[in-house]
Amino acid sequence: MALISPRFAPAAALLLPLALAGAPSFAQTAPTDVKEDSVVLQPDKVADDAPVVETLAEANLPSWSEDNARALLTFIQHVGEEGLFPQDYNPQGLQAAIASGNQVELDKVATDAFLLLATHLRDGRTPNAARKQWFMDDTDSDSTPLIPLLDYALTANDVAMTLAGLDPVHPNFALLKAALATAKTPADENIIRVNMERWRWMPRDLGDGYVVTNVPEYLTRVVRNGTVIATHKAVVGKPSTPTPQLNPMATGVILNPTWTLPRSIIAEGIGATIAHNPASARRQGYTWTGSGKTLSVVQQPGPGNALGVMKLEMLNPHAIYLHDTPSKGAFNAEKRAFSHGCIRTEKALHFSGLMAVMFAGATPEEFGEVVASGKTTRFEFEQPFPVYVAYWTMVPDDKGGVKKLADLYGRDAPVVASFAERGRPTAVLISPTPPPVVPTTTTAARQPTQKTPSAEAPGMSGIY
Q1: Secondary structure tally for the chain: helices H, strands E
Q2: Is 232 a catalytic residue?
Q3: Beta bridge pairs of residue 396
Q4: Which of the following is catalytic: 318, 323, 340, 350?
Q5: Using CA atoms, how far apart are residues 61 and 45, in angstroms rounded to an integer?
Q6: Residue-wise pLDDT tens for the chain (464 aa)?
Q7: For labeling, which of 132, 137, 154, 255 is most exposed (least CB within 10 Å)?
Q8: Cβ atoms < 10 Å from Cβ of 394
Q9: Is 9-40+207-394 in CATH node 3.40.109.10?
Q10: Burial class (CB in 10 A: 0-12, 13-18, 19+), 440
Q11: Rounded to the nearest 10 degrees, what angle do helices 9-22 and 364-373 cross at?
Q12: How far is 132 from 130, CA to CA, in rounded Å?
């Protein structure tokens, strides 16, 4: 049952009668053989960016005290509780460096371990090649740079709390962490780790207001100030046309939208209909210009429009968005993977009404009038907000624990397989001397095959 914040309850209560009273009948019943926009599949990003190179002068790192080094060692020894693996962070080498009394060696080994561990806690351990169709932008490296973080940890003598503070703040991550402690089988442990990882691939703080679709759950939620104020069934991409994971900013909601058909769907049939039976195409609401390879087709608002009465505007290169559909019957299915990649949204009038009132400053009356008019109208959001199209196969149950969902697109296995391999390289390398060429921030120029004099292996700081 959706939780409605008292602050928005009056507006939400008005949306249903106003919207349905004024809505044309086609908003509720229509043909079921239409198709919405197909996803524009982008190639996976399979290369990890090369680490940022800092010089010792730029880093200005304080020395590691024995107490700070031991605090780091203890954290590493218990990092399995975080879904990570202690051996990744050289606990034996750190123990030996502490025992050696060699300050230079201790500084090097401890710095290496801290930076690699902080990278994995902040950004995830999984290499990009195992993150199938994951295109979310994670800004944590900008908001939480690691060199100042290390500087603070050593100056404040607070290594453990500094590292623990990198955990995602969402309560679902805490549930997964608790479940890992009581997991009964290695398979259960692995699936929990996979989903803890996915939380780390996202921004640590999702924001005050956002929309989130969890593809394997077939659900879309509207969240405001940490409270779920609406939950809608979702239809997502078929395994052959999977919905990718991304987090575009929503900029507006369009009522009674037109639909510009992609070339793939023109080729599937409507192109032939236009060529051989244009009267039939017009009855279905299609208008067009050009012919053959130059044919451009737009479906006008109406009973058969594939986008129904609503489209959430969320610009992204994948052509993915949330929208209504005239094919309401699909929402009755338990497993709702039927689309070409976009996300169909149940009770779209309610959803778009919340968007218009909460984020665009419209009144329920204004919204109802627009729906009734049948005219294409855009409500611009006063403050754009993120839409997270996520992929969690372990989610909260209704008993305070977690439950496993079917892995719709088979995306868990590559992450589990990556656990046996070296993880992502540390986000920061420390060089005793400046490298001859400092990698730029352009992805194409920052491939992991680049070498610097200080980087013998991923995770090595280069301090000797």
Answers
A1: 17, 16
A2: no
A3: 402
A4: 323
A5: 33
A6: 333 333 344 444 444 444 443 444 333 344 444 566 667 778 887 888 878 888 878 888 789 999 999 999 999 999 999 999 999 999 999 999 999 999 999 999 999 999 999 999 999 999 999 999 999 999 999 999 999 999 999 999 999 999 999 999 999 999 999 999 999 999 999 999 999 999 999 999 999 999 999 999 999 999 999 999 999 999 999 999 999 999 999 999 999 999 888 887 888 888 899 989 999 999 989 999 998 889 999 999 987 888 999 999 998 999 899 999 999 999 999 999 999 899 999 999 999 999 999 999 999 999 999 988 989 999 999 999 999 999 999 999 989 999 999 999 999 999 999 999 999 999 999 887 776 765 554 444 334 433 333 333 334 444 33
A7: 137
A8: 24
A9: no
A10: exposed
A11: 20
A12: 6
β 219-224/227-237 pair status: antiparallel
Per-residue buried b or exposed e for 301-312, using 16+ beta carbons within 10 Å of the residue's own CB: bbbbbbbbbbbb
Find, among 40, 37, 27, 33, the residue nearest to 310 by Cα.
27
Clarify whether 340 is annotated catalytic.
no
Length of the chain: 464
CA distance 358 to 28: 24
Name the amino acid, one letter, at 144: T
Given the residues 232, 340, 342, 350, the one annotated as active site? 342
Q: Which two tokens stand for residue 200?
A: 């780390």
Enumerate residues 6+ apart whose C-beta is below 8 A from 242: 39, 133, 341, 408, 409
Strand partners, 339: 237
Paired with 7 in beta bridges are none
- Give the domain ranges of the chain: 9-40+207-394, 52-200+410-445
- Name the token pair of 401: 């624990």
| Chain position carrying tokens 């290169």 | 317
